[in-house]
Protein: Response receiver-related domain protein
Amino acid sequence: MGKILIVDDDKAFSQFLKRYINQHYPVLKVQICTSPVRALPIISKGDVDLLLVDYEMPVLDGDKVVKYACEVGMDKSRIIVLSSRDADFLHEHFPLGTCLAVMNKYEARQKAVLDMVFSSLQRKAAGR
Structure:
C-alpha cells in the first residue's frame, strides 16, 4: 500500500517530484518510469496505488497510458494526468470522471491538490 508510479519523460521533473514525496510523505514508495512503454508491465501488475502520468510523451502519450491502465483494471480514481498544458485543454481531453484529476505540473497552486492526495494515500498506507 502506498506505491506511486510517475510516468514522465521529463527526468528532472520526475526526480524533483520523487524527492518532494520522499521528504514529506515518507511512508509512500515512489517509482519513476521515463519511458511510457516500460511503465505498462508495472501498471499491469496491479499494485500501483496512484498513477501520475504526463500527457505529452513520445511513443505513447498520457491518454494511451490512462486507457491502458483502465483496461487492465486500474481504478480511474487513482490516476492523475499532469501536463504543461492549461486546465481547459486538459479538461477537454480528460472530461470529469475520466481520472481523479488533471493538473498543470508547473502551476504552484496545483501543489495543494497533490498534497491532499499524497496525504490521504499516506494515511491509508500507514493504516490510519
Observations:
- The longest strand covers residues 3-7.
